[in-house]
Amino acid sequence: MRYLYSISILFLCLNSVAQQAELVLLNGNIFTADNLRPYAEAIAITGNTIMAVGSNAEILNMAGPNSRRINLKGKTVIPGINDAHYHHSTLYNARTIVYPKNGEEPKWKSITDSIVKITKKLDSGKIICGYFGSDIATDTSINRNLLDQFSVNHPIFLFSYWGHTTILNSAAIKYIGLDEHCADPKGGYFERFKDTNLINGRVHELAQFSLDYSKLTSPELFSQSLKNLSKEALQYGITTIQNMCTAGSPKKYSTVLDENIFPLRMRLIRWCLQNSDGTLAVPDATMMSKEFGSPLFSVSGTKWMLDGTPIDQRSEIREGYRSPDGWHGKMNFTPADIDSFLCEASRRNDQVMFHVAGDKTLECLLDAMERQTSIDWPEKRVRIEHGDGILPDLMERVKKLGLIVVQNPTHFSSVILWHERYKGAMEEFAMPLRSLIRNDIPVALGSDGPLNPFLNIMLACLHPYNLDEALTVEEAVIAYTSNSAYAEMTERWKGRLVRGMVADLAVLNQDIFSVPLHRLPATVSLLTIVDGKIVYEKK
Predict the structure, then answer these.
(1) In angstroms, rounded to a whole number, what is the distance separating the alpha carbons of residues 116 and 100?
(2) Distance between CA atoms of 147 and 82, rounded to whole angstroms?
(3) Could you read off the pLDDT of 32-59 as tens digits, one per residue?
(4) Using CA atoms, how far apart are residues 262 and 122, in angstroms rounded to an integer?
(5) Are 152 and 171 spatial neighbours (Cβ–Cβ below 8 Å)?
(6) DSSP per residue, 56-124
(7) Angle between helix 392-400 and helix 359-371 axes, rounded to 10 deg
(8) Please, what are the domains in the chain?
(9) Predicted TM-score (pTM) of this structure
Protein backbone atom coordinates (compact mmCIF):
# COMPACT_ATOMS: atom_id res chain seq x y z
CA MET A 1 0.00 0.00 0.00
CA ARG A 2 2.85 2.38 0.89
CA TYR A 3 4.32 1.69 -2.56
CA LEU A 4 1.03 2.46 -4.32
CA TYR A 5 0.62 5.61 -2.24
CA SER A 6 4.09 6.83 -3.27
CA ILE A 7 3.30 6.18 -6.93
CA SER A 8 0.06 8.17 -6.62
CA ILE A 9 1.84 11.14 -5.04
CA LEU A 10 4.50 11.04 -7.80
CA PHE A 11 1.81 10.98 -10.47
CA LEU A 12 0.03 13.96 -8.98
CA CYS A 13 3.27 15.91 -8.77
CA LEU A 14 4.20 15.16 -12.39
CA ASN A 15 0.70 16.07 -13.51
CA SER A 16 0.91 19.36 -11.61
CA VAL A 17 4.20 20.21 -13.30
CA ALA A 18 2.80 19.25 -16.69
CA GLN A 19 -0.16 21.59 -16.21
CA GLN A 20 1.95 24.65 -15.48
CA ALA A 21 1.49 27.28 -18.17
CA GLU A 22 4.42 28.88 -19.91
CA LEU A 23 2.51 32.12 -20.47
CA VAL A 24 -0.53 33.53 -18.71
CA LEU A 25 -2.47 36.65 -19.67
CA LEU A 26 -4.42 38.09 -16.74
CA ASN A 27 -6.95 40.84 -16.02
CA GLY A 28 -8.19 41.10 -19.58
CA ASN A 29 -11.38 41.58 -21.52
CA ILE A 30 -11.01 38.44 -23.63
CA PHE A 31 -13.46 37.81 -26.46
CA THR A 32 -13.19 34.11 -27.27
CA ALA A 33 -15.49 33.97 -30.34
CA ASP A 34 -16.96 30.88 -28.67
CA ASN A 35 -20.71 30.77 -28.13
CA LEU A 36 -20.44 28.73 -24.91
CA ARG A 37 -18.26 31.33 -23.17
CA PRO A 38 -17.91 34.53 -25.23
CA TYR A 39 -15.88 36.44 -22.65
CA ALA A 40 -13.23 35.61 -20.06
CA GLU A 41 -10.63 37.32 -17.85
CA ALA A 42 -7.50 35.29 -18.43
CA ILE A 43 -5.83 32.73 -20.65
CA ALA A 44 -3.08 30.13 -20.15
CA ILE A 45 -0.75 29.00 -22.95
CA THR A 46 1.81 26.20 -23.13
CA GLY A 47 3.79 25.58 -26.28
CA ASN A 48 1.57 26.60 -29.16
CA THR A 49 -1.66 25.58 -27.44
CA ILE A 50 -4.25 27.22 -25.22
CA MET A 51 -4.39 25.32 -21.93
CA ALA A 52 -7.41 27.12 -20.56
CA VAL A 53 -9.49 30.28 -20.69
CA GLY A 54 -11.30 31.44 -17.60
CA SER A 55 -11.22 33.65 -14.54
CA ASN A 56 -8.04 35.12 -13.09
CA ALA A 57 -8.21 32.68 -10.19
CA GLU A 58 -8.59 29.66 -12.48
CA ILE A 59 -5.69 30.66 -14.68
CA LEU A 60 -3.40 31.64 -11.81
CA ASN A 61 -3.73 28.09 -10.50
CA MET A 62 -2.00 26.97 -13.70
CA ALA A 63 0.92 29.35 -13.33
CA GLY A 64 4.18 28.14 -11.88
CA PRO A 65 7.39 29.84 -10.77
CA ASN A 66 8.71 29.83 -14.34
CA SER A 67 5.50 31.03 -15.99
CA ARG A 68 5.59 34.41 -17.69
CA ARG A 69 2.76 36.59 -16.48
CA ILE A 70 1.36 39.50 -18.47
CA ASN A 71 -1.07 41.87 -16.78
CA LEU A 72 -3.46 43.02 -19.51
CA LYS A 73 -4.83 45.80 -17.31
CA GLY A 74 -8.29 45.44 -18.79
CA LYS A 75 -7.16 45.42 -22.44
CA THR A 76 -9.32 43.67 -25.02
CA VAL A 77 -8.09 40.40 -26.50
CA ILE A 78 -9.49 38.73 -29.62
CA PRO A 79 -8.54 35.63 -31.61
CA GLY A 80 -5.99 36.40 -34.29
CA ILE A 81 -7.60 37.97 -37.34
CA ASN A 82 -7.80 35.57 -40.29
CA ASP A 83 -8.03 37.58 -43.51
CA ALA A 84 -9.99 35.20 -45.74
CA HIS A 85 -9.39 37.04 -49.01
CA TYR A 86 -6.18 38.91 -49.68
CA HIS A 87 -3.98 39.48 -52.74
CA HIS A 88 -0.30 39.84 -51.91
CA SER A 89 1.44 41.97 -54.51
CA THR A 90 5.18 42.17 -54.96
CA LEU A 91 7.29 45.29 -55.25
CA TYR A 92 8.32 46.44 -58.72
CA ASN A 93 11.63 47.85 -59.85
CA ALA A 94 9.79 50.89 -61.11
CA ARG A 95 8.89 54.47 -60.36
CA THR A 96 5.38 54.21 -58.93
CA ILE A 97 2.80 56.97 -59.09
CA VAL A 98 1.63 57.47 -55.52
CA TYR A 99 -2.07 56.89 -54.86
CA PRO A 100 -3.80 59.92 -53.27
CA LYS A 101 -3.46 59.93 -49.48
CA ASN A 102 -7.10 60.93 -49.05
CA GLY A 103 -8.18 57.62 -50.62
CA GLU A 104 -9.95 59.26 -53.55
CA GLU A 105 -9.59 57.61 -56.92
CA PRO A 106 -6.85 59.28 -59.00
CA LYS A 107 -8.23 61.15 -61.98
CA TRP A 108 -6.77 60.71 -65.44
CA LYS A 109 -5.28 64.21 -65.48
CA SER A 110 -3.48 63.67 -62.18
CA ILE A 111 -2.04 60.40 -63.51
CA THR A 112 -0.82 61.96 -66.74
CA ASP A 113 0.56 65.01 -64.92
CA SER A 114 2.59 62.61 -62.75
CA ILE A 115 3.83 60.72 -65.82
CA VAL A 116 5.00 63.97 -67.44
CA LYS A 117 6.91 65.02 -64.30
CA ILE A 118 8.47 61.59 -63.86
CA THR A 119 9.63 61.20 -67.46
CA LYS A 120 11.52 64.50 -67.29
CA LYS A 121 13.78 63.07 -64.56
CA LEU A 122 13.73 59.32 -65.29
CA ASP A 123 16.31 57.70 -67.53
CA SER A 124 15.05 56.24 -70.79
CA GLY A 125 13.93 52.62 -70.46
CA LYS A 126 13.04 52.87 -66.78
CA ILE A 127 9.60 51.59 -65.82
CA ILE A 128 6.63 53.66 -64.60
CA CYS A 129 3.74 52.07 -62.72
CA GLY A 130 0.49 53.51 -61.44
CA TYR A 131 -3.08 52.73 -60.44
CA PHE A 132 -6.34 54.08 -61.82
CA GLY A 133 -9.95 54.34 -60.74
CA SER A 134 -13.42 53.48 -61.96
CA ASP A 135 -13.80 56.38 -64.42
CA ILE A 136 -10.89 55.06 -66.49
CA ALA A 137 -12.19 51.48 -66.43
CA THR A 138 -14.96 52.19 -68.92
CA ASP A 139 -13.20 54.91 -70.94
CA THR A 140 -11.96 52.92 -73.94
CA SER A 141 -10.24 55.98 -75.43
CA ILE A 142 -7.47 55.49 -72.88
CA ASN A 143 -5.20 53.00 -74.63
CA ARG A 144 -1.59 52.50 -75.72
CA ASN A 145 -1.74 55.27 -78.33
CA LEU A 146 -2.81 57.80 -75.74
CA LEU A 147 -0.14 56.63 -73.28
CA ASP A 148 2.46 56.78 -76.04
CA GLN A 149 1.84 60.52 -76.25
CA PHE A 150 3.40 60.85 -72.80
CA SER A 151 6.34 58.52 -73.40
CA VAL A 152 7.54 56.01 -75.97
CA ASN A 153 10.83 55.50 -74.11
CA HIS A 154 9.47 54.37 -70.75
CA PRO A 155 7.40 51.19 -70.29
CA ILE A 156 4.18 52.35 -68.60
CA PHE A 157 2.00 49.90 -66.66
CA LEU A 158 -1.29 51.18 -65.25
CA PHE A 159 -3.29 48.84 -63.02
CA SER A 160 -6.88 49.09 -61.86
CA TYR A 161 -6.97 49.12 -58.06
CA TRP A 162 -9.56 46.29 -58.12
CA GLY A 163 -7.24 44.12 -60.22
CA HIS A 164 -9.35 43.29 -63.28
CA THR A 165 -7.84 45.62 -65.90
CA THR A 166 -4.34 46.68 -66.96
CA ILE A 167 -3.40 49.36 -69.51
CA LEU A 168 0.01 49.26 -71.24
CA ASN A 169 1.80 51.63 -73.57
CA SER A 170 3.73 50.32 -76.59
CA ALA A 171 7.04 50.30 -74.71
CA ALA A 172 5.51 48.14 -71.96
CA ILE A 173 4.10 45.68 -74.49
CA LYS A 174 7.55 45.34 -76.03
CA TYR A 175 9.30 45.19 -72.65
CA ILE A 176 7.42 42.10 -71.49
CA GLY A 177 7.57 40.46 -74.91
CA LEU A 178 3.84 40.37 -75.55
CA ASP A 179 2.73 39.34 -79.04
CA GLU A 180 0.82 42.30 -80.45
CA HIS A 181 -1.55 39.95 -82.30
CA CYS A 182 -1.93 37.32 -79.56
CA ALA A 183 -5.17 35.39 -79.24
CA ASP A 184 -7.51 35.94 -76.33
CA PRO A 185 -7.06 33.36 -73.57
CA LYS A 186 -9.97 31.61 -71.93
CA GLY A 187 -11.49 33.81 -69.25
CA GLY A 188 -10.09 37.11 -70.49
CA TYR A 189 -9.45 39.29 -73.49
CA PHE A 190 -7.33 41.98 -75.06
CA GLU A 191 -9.04 45.04 -76.49
CA ARG A 192 -8.01 45.69 -80.09
CA PHE A 193 -7.94 48.66 -82.43
CA LYS A 194 -11.06 48.89 -84.55
CA ASP A 195 -11.17 46.55 -87.54
CA THR A 196 -7.74 45.08 -86.70
CA ASN A 197 -6.25 42.21 -84.71
CA LEU A 198 -3.74 44.58 -83.09
CA ILE A 199 -4.01 44.82 -79.29
CA ASN A 200 -4.58 48.37 -78.04
CA GLY A 201 -2.97 47.95 -74.61
CA ARG A 202 -6.14 47.40 -72.56
CA VAL A 203 -6.05 43.94 -70.94
CA HIS A 204 -8.96 42.44 -69.04
CA GLU A 205 -9.69 39.61 -66.62
CA LEU A 206 -7.56 36.44 -66.96
CA ALA A 207 -5.74 37.80 -70.02
CA GLN A 208 -3.64 39.59 -67.41
CA PHE A 209 -2.07 36.23 -66.56
CA SER A 210 -0.56 36.34 -70.07
CA LEU A 211 1.57 39.29 -68.99
CA ASP A 212 5.06 38.33 -67.85
CA TYR A 213 5.87 40.67 -64.99
CA SER A 214 9.06 38.83 -63.99
CA LYS A 215 11.21 41.59 -65.50
CA LEU A 216 9.54 44.14 -63.25
CA THR A 217 10.58 42.50 -59.99
CA SER A 218 13.24 40.27 -58.41
CA PRO A 219 13.54 37.64 -55.65
CA GLU A 220 14.85 40.34 -53.34
CA LEU A 221 11.89 42.64 -54.01
CA PHE A 222 9.49 39.71 -53.63
CA SER A 223 11.03 38.87 -50.25
CA GLN A 224 10.92 42.52 -49.15
CA SER A 225 7.24 42.78 -50.09
CA LEU A 226 6.50 39.81 -47.80
CA LYS A 227 8.46 41.43 -44.98
CA ASN A 228 6.45 44.62 -45.43
CA LEU A 229 3.19 42.67 -45.42
CA SER A 230 4.05 40.74 -42.27
CA LYS A 231 5.01 43.92 -40.44
CA GLU A 232 1.73 45.60 -41.31
CA ALA A 233 -0.36 42.51 -40.61
CA LEU A 234 1.07 41.85 -37.15
CA GLN A 235 0.53 45.47 -36.14
CA TYR A 236 -3.18 44.86 -36.81
CA GLY A 237 -3.30 41.53 -34.97
CA ILE A 238 -3.63 39.54 -38.18
CA THR A 239 -2.28 36.02 -37.65
CA THR A 240 -3.47 34.33 -40.87
CA ILE A 241 -3.62 35.56 -44.45
CA GLN A 242 -5.43 33.53 -47.08
CA ASN A 243 -3.53 34.68 -50.12
CA MET A 244 -5.05 34.49 -53.59
CA CYS A 245 -1.78 33.95 -55.44
CA THR A 246 -1.75 36.66 -58.09
CA ALA A 247 1.91 37.61 -57.52
CA GLY A 248 3.24 34.12 -58.20
CA SER A 249 2.48 30.42 -57.95
CA PRO A 250 2.69 28.55 -54.62
CA LYS A 251 6.00 27.10 -55.81
CA LYS A 252 7.40 30.63 -56.14
CA TYR A 253 6.34 31.39 -52.56
CA SER A 254 7.96 28.17 -51.34
CA THR A 255 11.36 29.48 -52.45
CA VAL A 256 11.00 32.64 -50.38
CA LEU A 257 8.68 32.07 -47.43
CA ASP A 258 10.25 31.36 -44.06
CA GLU A 259 9.36 32.28 -40.50
CA ASN A 260 12.10 34.91 -40.28
CA ILE A 261 10.55 37.15 -42.92
CA PHE A 262 6.94 36.06 -42.42
CA PRO A 263 6.22 34.96 -38.83
CA LEU A 264 2.48 34.47 -39.32
CA ARG A 265 0.31 31.97 -41.17
CA MET A 266 -0.23 32.12 -44.90
CA ARG A 267 -2.54 29.91 -46.89
CA LEU A 268 -1.62 29.89 -50.57
CA ILE A 269 -4.59 29.53 -52.89
CA ARG A 270 -4.00 28.48 -56.49
CA TRP A 271 -5.45 30.27 -59.49
CA CYS A 272 -6.78 27.86 -62.06
CA LEU A 273 -6.68 28.70 -65.75
CA GLN A 274 -8.24 27.06 -68.79
CA ASN A 275 -6.30 26.29 -71.94
CA SER A 276 -7.68 27.19 -75.36
CA ASP A 277 -8.58 23.52 -75.97
CA GLY A 278 -10.69 23.42 -72.80
CA THR A 279 -8.21 21.53 -70.64
CA LEU A 280 -7.46 22.92 -67.21
CA ALA A 281 -4.15 24.31 -66.01
CA VAL A 282 -3.77 24.19 -62.24
CA PRO A 283 -0.41 25.61 -61.13
CA ASP A 284 1.31 23.34 -58.60
CA ALA A 285 -1.76 21.09 -58.46
CA THR A 286 0.13 18.35 -56.61
CA MET A 287 2.14 20.59 -54.32
CA MET A 288 1.77 19.68 -50.65
CA SER A 289 1.92 21.95 -47.61
CA LYS A 290 4.77 19.89 -46.14
CA GLU A 291 7.05 21.20 -48.89
CA PHE A 292 7.24 24.51 -47.01
CA GLY A 293 8.89 22.93 -43.99
CA SER A 294 6.84 25.08 -41.60
CA PRO A 295 3.39 24.61 -40.06
CA LEU A 296 2.74 28.30 -40.64
CA PHE A 297 2.46 27.90 -44.42
CA SER A 298 0.04 25.78 -46.39
CA VAL A 299 -1.23 25.39 -49.94
CA SER A 300 -4.81 24.39 -50.68
CA GLY A 301 -7.83 25.50 -52.64
CA THR A 302 -8.34 26.65 -56.21
CA LYS A 303 -9.89 29.92 -57.33
CA TRP A 304 -11.84 30.67 -60.50
CA MET A 305 -12.80 34.15 -61.66
CA LEU A 306 -16.23 33.59 -63.16
CA ASP A 307 -16.99 37.24 -63.93
CA GLY A 308 -15.72 40.78 -63.55
CA THR A 309 -16.93 43.51 -61.24
CA PRO A 310 -19.65 46.16 -61.26
CA ILE A 311 -16.87 48.76 -61.40
CA ASP A 312 -16.06 47.82 -64.98
CA GLN A 313 -19.60 46.50 -65.56
CA ARG A 314 -18.41 43.01 -66.47
CA SER A 315 -20.15 41.07 -63.71
CA GLU A 316 -23.22 39.51 -65.29
CA ILE A 317 -26.56 40.60 -63.82
CA ARG A 318 -30.09 39.62 -64.72
CA GLU A 319 -31.78 43.04 -64.87
CA GLY A 320 -28.94 44.80 -66.64
CA TYR A 321 -26.93 47.92 -65.85
CA ARG A 322 -28.29 51.44 -65.89
CA SER A 323 -26.00 52.36 -68.76
CA PRO A 324 -25.51 51.46 -71.52
CA ASP A 325 -29.07 50.35 -71.90
CA GLY A 326 -29.41 46.62 -72.48
CA TRP A 327 -25.92 45.74 -71.17
CA HIS A 328 -25.96 42.87 -68.66
CA GLY A 329 -22.25 42.21 -68.37
CA LYS A 330 -20.71 38.93 -69.47
CA MET A 331 -19.33 35.94 -67.64
CA ASN A 332 -15.71 35.00 -68.25
CA PHE A 333 -16.67 31.37 -68.79
CA THR A 334 -19.56 29.36 -70.23
CA PRO A 335 -21.88 27.07 -68.21
CA ALA A 336 -20.07 24.10 -69.80
CA ASP A 337 -16.76 25.50 -68.53
CA ILE A 338 -18.18 25.77 -65.02
CA ASP A 339 -19.24 22.10 -65.19
CA SER A 340 -15.64 21.13 -65.96
CA PHE A 341 -14.30 23.27 -63.11
CA LEU A 342 -16.60 21.58 -60.62
CA CYS A 343 -15.69 18.10 -61.86
CA GLU A 344 -11.98 18.89 -61.63
CA ALA A 345 -12.26 20.22 -58.09
CA SER A 346 -14.32 17.21 -57.01
CA ARG A 347 -11.81 14.81 -58.58
CA ARG A 348 -8.91 16.40 -56.69
CA ASN A 349 -11.01 16.79 -53.53
CA ASP A 350 -9.85 20.38 -53.40
CA GLN A 351 -11.82 23.28 -52.01
CA VAL A 352 -13.01 25.47 -54.84
CA MET A 353 -13.57 29.22 -54.66
CA PHE A 354 -15.49 31.25 -57.20
CA HIS A 355 -15.24 34.98 -57.77
CA VAL A 356 -18.93 35.74 -58.30
CA ALA A 357 -20.21 39.31 -58.34
CA GLY A 358 -23.31 39.22 -60.56
CA ASP A 359 -26.60 37.52 -59.72
CA LYS A 360 -26.77 35.97 -63.20
CA THR A 361 -23.29 34.50 -62.73
CA LEU A 362 -24.35 33.09 -59.37
CA GLU A 363 -27.50 31.60 -60.88
CA CYS A 364 -25.40 29.82 -63.53
CA LEU A 365 -23.06 28.44 -60.84
CA LEU A 366 -25.98 27.19 -58.74
CA ASP A 367 -27.50 25.54 -61.81
CA ALA A 368 -24.20 23.76 -62.53
CA MET A 369 -23.84 22.52 -58.94
CA GLU A 370 -27.42 21.28 -58.83
CA ARG A 371 -26.91 19.33 -62.04
CA GLN A 372 -24.19 17.27 -60.35
CA THR A 373 -26.40 15.41 -57.91
CA SER A 374 -23.80 12.76 -57.03
CA ILE A 375 -21.58 15.28 -55.21
CA ASP A 376 -22.12 16.17 -51.56
CA TRP A 377 -21.61 19.91 -51.99
CA PRO A 378 -21.90 20.95 -48.32
CA GLU A 379 -18.98 18.63 -47.58
CA LYS A 380 -16.88 20.40 -50.24
CA ARG A 381 -17.43 23.84 -48.68
CA VAL A 382 -17.50 25.70 -51.98
CA ARG A 383 -16.74 29.38 -51.45
CA ILE A 384 -18.28 32.44 -53.06
CA GLU A 385 -15.82 35.32 -53.05
CA HIS A 386 -17.62 38.69 -52.79
CA GLY A 387 -21.22 37.49 -53.18
CA ASP A 388 -22.66 40.80 -54.39
CA GLY A 389 -25.40 38.98 -56.27
CA ILE A 390 -26.80 36.71 -53.57
CA LEU A 391 -30.31 38.12 -53.92
CA PRO A 392 -33.29 36.93 -51.84
CA ASP A 393 -34.60 34.51 -54.49
CA LEU A 394 -31.19 32.75 -54.62
CA MET A 395 -30.58 32.62 -50.88
CA GLU A 396 -32.22 29.23 -50.19
CA ARG A 397 -30.29 27.55 -52.99
CA VAL A 398 -27.01 28.94 -51.64
CA LYS A 399 -27.87 27.56 -48.20
CA LYS A 400 -28.90 24.13 -49.47
CA LEU A 401 -25.62 23.68 -51.34
CA GLY A 402 -23.64 24.61 -48.24
CA LEU A 403 -21.83 27.53 -49.84
CA ILE A 404 -19.61 29.79 -47.76
CA VAL A 405 -19.64 33.50 -48.56
CA VAL A 406 -16.51 35.61 -48.13
CA GLN A 407 -17.51 39.26 -48.08
CA ASN A 408 -15.21 42.28 -48.36
CA PRO A 409 -16.62 45.25 -46.44
CA THR A 410 -14.41 47.81 -48.17
CA HIS A 411 -16.55 47.17 -51.24
CA PHE A 412 -19.53 48.60 -49.35
CA SER A 413 -17.91 52.03 -49.23
CA SER A 414 -18.46 52.71 -52.96
CA VAL A 415 -22.13 53.46 -52.39
CA ILE A 416 -22.49 56.11 -55.08
CA LEU A 417 -20.72 53.99 -57.67
CA TRP A 418 -22.93 50.95 -57.01
CA HIS A 419 -26.12 53.00 -57.28
CA GLU A 420 -24.84 54.47 -60.55
CA ARG A 421 -24.25 50.97 -61.92
CA TYR A 422 -27.05 48.83 -60.50
CA LYS A 423 -30.81 48.95 -60.82
CA GLY A 424 -33.74 46.84 -59.66
CA ALA A 425 -33.05 44.01 -57.21
CA MET A 426 -29.26 44.40 -57.46
CA GLU A 427 -29.56 48.03 -56.39
CA GLU A 428 -31.80 47.12 -53.46
CA PHE A 429 -30.28 43.88 -52.16
CA ALA A 430 -26.67 43.64 -53.41
CA MET A 431 -23.83 42.76 -51.03
CA PRO A 432 -25.79 41.06 -48.23
CA LEU A 433 -24.37 40.34 -44.78
CA ARG A 434 -26.99 40.07 -42.05
CA SER A 435 -29.49 38.29 -44.27
CA LEU A 436 -26.86 35.62 -44.93
CA ILE A 437 -26.44 35.00 -41.20
CA ARG A 438 -30.20 35.02 -40.76
CA ASN A 439 -30.41 32.26 -43.37
CA ASP A 440 -27.65 30.20 -41.67
CA ILE A 441 -25.17 30.78 -44.49
CA PRO A 442 -21.57 30.93 -43.15
CA VAL A 443 -19.98 34.35 -43.65
CA ALA A 444 -16.26 35.08 -43.43
CA LEU A 445 -14.52 38.41 -43.97
CA GLY A 446 -11.51 39.31 -46.05
CA SER A 447 -9.97 42.63 -46.97
CA ASP A 448 -9.45 42.39 -50.76
CA GLY A 449 -8.03 45.87 -50.46
CA PRO A 450 -6.81 47.93 -47.49
CA LEU A 451 -5.46 45.39 -44.98
CA ASN A 452 -6.80 47.17 -41.86
CA PRO A 453 -9.32 44.67 -40.40
CA PHE A 454 -10.83 47.25 -38.10
CA LEU A 455 -11.68 49.46 -41.06
CA ASN A 456 -13.44 46.44 -42.53
CA ILE A 457 -15.20 45.69 -39.24
CA MET A 458 -16.42 49.30 -39.08
CA LEU A 459 -17.78 49.08 -42.62
CA ALA A 460 -19.44 45.72 -41.89
CA CYS A 461 -21.15 47.31 -38.88
CA LEU A 462 -22.22 50.42 -40.78
CA HIS A 463 -22.84 48.77 -44.17
CA PRO A 464 -23.24 52.13 -45.94
CA TYR A 465 -24.76 50.42 -48.98
CA ASN A 466 -27.62 48.85 -47.00
CA LEU A 467 -27.93 49.56 -43.27
CA ASP A 468 -30.34 46.64 -42.80
CA GLU A 469 -27.43 44.32 -43.64
CA ALA A 470 -25.10 45.69 -40.92
CA LEU A 471 -23.50 43.39 -38.32
CA THR A 472 -22.65 43.90 -34.68
CA VAL A 473 -18.97 44.19 -33.80
CA GLU A 474 -19.08 40.75 -32.15
CA GLU A 475 -20.56 39.22 -35.30
CA ALA A 476 -17.94 40.91 -37.47
CA VAL A 477 -15.08 39.65 -35.28
CA ILE A 478 -16.50 36.11 -35.40
CA ALA A 479 -16.70 36.38 -39.19
CA TYR A 480 -13.06 37.53 -39.26
CA THR A 481 -11.81 34.76 -36.95
CA SER A 482 -13.73 31.52 -36.35
CA ASN A 483 -15.76 31.79 -39.57
CA SER A 484 -12.64 32.54 -41.60
CA ALA A 485 -11.12 29.39 -40.10
CA TYR A 486 -14.24 27.47 -41.15
CA ALA A 487 -13.82 28.94 -44.64
CA GLU A 488 -10.36 27.33 -44.86
CA MET A 489 -11.38 24.08 -43.10
CA THR A 490 -9.20 24.72 -40.03
CA GLU A 491 -11.93 25.45 -37.49
CA ARG A 492 -11.06 22.37 -35.41
CA TRP A 493 -7.76 23.85 -34.30
CA LYS A 494 -7.88 27.63 -34.68
CA GLY A 495 -10.16 30.66 -34.81
CA ARG A 496 -11.42 30.65 -31.22
CA LEU A 497 -9.79 31.16 -27.84
CA VAL A 498 -10.75 27.89 -26.16
CA ARG A 499 -8.85 25.01 -24.61
CA GLY A 500 -6.94 22.90 -27.12
CA MET A 501 -6.94 25.52 -29.87
CA VAL A 502 -3.73 26.95 -31.24
CA ALA A 503 -2.66 30.15 -29.50
CA ASP A 504 -3.17 32.85 -32.15
CA LEU A 505 -4.41 36.09 -30.61
CA ALA A 506 -4.09 39.85 -30.41
CA VAL A 507 -4.15 42.31 -27.50
CA LEU A 508 -5.73 45.55 -28.72
CA ASN A 509 -5.12 49.18 -27.82
CA GLN A 510 -8.82 49.91 -27.34
CA ASP A 511 -12.04 48.08 -26.56
CA ILE A 512 -13.51 47.58 -30.02
CA PHE A 513 -16.80 46.41 -28.49
CA SER A 514 -17.53 49.71 -26.77
CA VAL A 515 -15.84 52.53 -28.73
CA PRO A 516 -17.90 54.44 -31.32
CA LEU A 517 -17.78 52.73 -34.70
CA HIS A 518 -15.99 55.61 -36.40
CA ARG A 519 -13.02 55.04 -34.07
CA LEU A 520 -12.54 51.39 -35.01
CA PRO A 521 -10.01 52.00 -37.85
CA ALA A 522 -7.59 53.47 -35.28
CA THR A 523 -7.33 50.08 -33.56
CA VAL A 524 -3.92 48.39 -33.50
CA SER A 525 -2.43 45.42 -31.74
CA LEU A 526 -0.23 45.94 -28.70
CA LEU A 527 0.78 42.28 -28.61
CA THR A 528 0.34 39.65 -31.32
CA ILE A 529 0.85 35.96 -30.62
CA VAL A 530 1.15 33.37 -33.40
CA ASP A 531 1.46 29.66 -32.66
CA GLY A 532 2.06 30.44 -29.01
CA LYS A 533 4.96 32.83 -29.70
CA ILE A 534 4.97 36.59 -29.18
CA VAL A 535 5.88 37.78 -32.66
CA TYR A 536 4.98 41.45 -32.28
CA GLU A 537 4.97 43.78 -29.29
CA LYS A 538 4.27 47.48 -29.70
CA LYS A 539 7.03 49.55 -28.16
Answers:
(1) 17
(2) 40
(3) 999 999 999 999 999 999 999 999 999 9
(4) 33
(5) yes
(6) HHHHHTTEEEEEEEEE-TT-EEEEPEEEEEE------SSEEPPPPTT-PPPPHHHHHHHHHHHHHHSPT
(7) 30
(8) 2-74 (2.30.40.10), 82-86+217-537 (3.20.20.140), 95-216 (3.10.310)
(9) 0.94
